[in-house]
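Model the whole thing, not chain by chain.
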Amino acid sequence: MKPLSRPVFLAAGAYTVSLGPGRREFSPRTPRPGLDHYLLEAGRAVLAQVGDPDLIDEGVVGNFMAARFNRQGHLGSLMTIIHPSLEYKPALRVEGACASGGLALATGIKSVLSGLAEAVLVVGVEVQNTVKALYCADYLAGAGYYEGERKQGPAFFFPGKFSERAGAYAAKVGPDRARSAMARWYRNAVEHARLNPAAQEYHNTVADLAAQGLTPPNPASFTEHLNLFDCSKVSDGAAALIVASEAGWRRLGLARQDVVEVAGLGQCAANLTSPPPDLTEMTTCRRAAAQALAMAGIGVDAAGVFEVHDCFTISGLLSVEALGLAAPGGGADLVLAGETSRAGRYPTNTGGGLVGYGHPTGATGVRMAVDLWKQLTGRAGEFQVPLAAEHGVMISMGGNDKTSVSLVLRR
Amino acid sequence: MDLDSRLENVAVVGAAGKMGSGISLLLALELAWRALERPERVFVLNLIDLDDRGLQGLVRYLRDQAAKDGEKQINRLRRLFQDRADLVDNQDMVQAFVFEVLLHVRTGRTPALAADALLVFEAAFEREDIKTALYRDLASLCRPEACFLSNTSSMPLQALSEACGLSGRMIGFHFYNPPAVQKLVEVIRPRDCSPELAGLAGELAKVLRKQTVPSADIAGFIGNGHFIRDGLYALRLAERLAERHGFVPAVHLVERVSRDFLLRPMGIFQLIDYVGIDVFQLITRVMAGHLGEDLGSPLVDRLLERGVKGGQASGGAQKPGFLTYEKGRPAGIHDPDAGGYVALEDPAIREADARLGPHPDPGLSWKALQKDPARAAKLAAYFQVLASLDTLGGRLAREHLLNSRAIGLELVRQGVARSPEDVNEVLKLGFFHLYGPINDYLEAAP
């Protein structure tokens, strides 16, 4: 794997509250902020950390389904509302289902690598609570192969797809072990979220999370192998940061300790029309992570903090295997041993992840990078973990493991 | 003619009212599912009411509720629509279901719309002259094989059916409010009701997923037989307590005891407001007329003279009656002297609370116990404490419980209910009480 042609950095991260069920201020009956609000809040929180916003060269916005959730397309143009200096500069929206945020990062990195930009404002945004969860499931099903899969699929399409994976995983490692590990993942996610004031589960006060996570799935009303606690919730939110060259962050008035370097980038897509080659493996994520780690020239063990795409608890387990933190089928034991909790050897999703922080789909990949940036620069506040290692790794995933972007970041 | 065939053409008369809307919804959903599952058959639901605006509101209500039902049963819809290539998303299917529900509905003001109906549900205003005139019309308009299911909550069906020339073709099928939610249907079989119709009513209840309790054809039946007398007890008690404490604190004392000390879902005055003070009065008049019992309440008459009626606004919000409400919760008590409402935070009401004394178990409430699997044991322990509570609250609660029990036993003695269990079932299912009135909680206490 060739290294990046010049050093690229991430800086000035910020994200909004992930608003949705679970947050005290959320009510489905009262009006809520729309896309504009989230773009402005996250974008301006980034610009507030840098010197002259005029020195931003480009904008990239990651978004999955605003055209359906908000009936709004043309988000590249919309993102210029963040600051007048963005007008008449390049701006575009990228989409890769739930990896849209990851793709926005990759696009920003490539712009900087091209030499056409020194600093790119990357925003991820999604506002999903415009419809009930049942209809949200319709829109999100667009991340699958609509023509070939949707009609025969279950009402809650993606929970159904990942339920198949959970079933296959249970057959592989034993149903009790799989269920316990998914419950433990849920517990970690909420415990981590309780330390992150922006997280959707920040207000969660349930005493026995493990017991809740063990709730038997109800196939009649939901899915065969996943309960509701296994799922990330419907969320509204945005995350943003700056992708910059060294010249880029210097002219924005930042110092080296404010930024993290992109040590590795992996990105790949798999055939949307084919079923996964192995339900118990996230093959695309594994490949993207391997590319990123090879480019960084490190083994995964060398990293000290991780962000994985736990849209469901099962995808959390499969992601730690895809990263190589555990052998195939070994993710459950790793999680059960507490190794992925903030106190474990591999602190994962320290701000709550998708299950705990929330999953505003287009924002998620960017939010992951922001959380790694926060950890590596010591800005994670109450959810900061002590870090001996220099590196953090993230995997952003779209659809049923069909698009993946992985980054290795170095402080 | 079997129920399946009869359900192909159904009418609801008085469809836009509170009970009529709920009955219409239950039928509209049932017919839509049937139509989807048996596309070779044609189903028609005739919804009749004199109120055009009410009918339009009803269609909106059906549309909204149909969407909710379709969403709730999305897996069933996905199976049913599996061959419809044009329906892919959940949203497509729910919208198709809503269309299916409305497709079978015909609305109108004239009873003639019921001419082809084979089952006619009636939920007209609870006044004998209105129902009698309506049924006479229907008797001349409808097919001879049509059956009539009356939602009357108080009128003896034998007398009503005879007066309208529908003897043998009418049965009492009394839903509880709101019909779409409440599980109970009181079935009242008049003396000459045909066995076929009685069987049909039982089958229909199963189809609509309702639980039936039979009641004798005696005015008020079991539900109102208990509620009206329980309400009158409370009204008279409040008037008595008012002499010493003042009217507003007296209403508060009775309300709090009947709700908090008796662990009921709402206090007795809130319940009268929910039913409607005017409807309460109508029922007392029907019952008094048939039973020769003194069921009058000067207090109720006085409030109605002043236009204080309770009941619900068209959107479902509770209108002021004995109490006033904010976000569906009691917020004040009517003061007949001043004409307005006294806020619950008023010092006079707080003082009444103090006079009641402490609740036997402040951690226990209807809401807390509703889904508690250990409810029976907790109730027994609770009433043991209540039995020996030497406070105003304790005394009033015991008196109320014993009175409620006596009403229940009298209903059994008069043959209105077959058994104490039937009385208890009606109160538990129809009024959401945690326990039936015929119990030995106080006797069992030391």
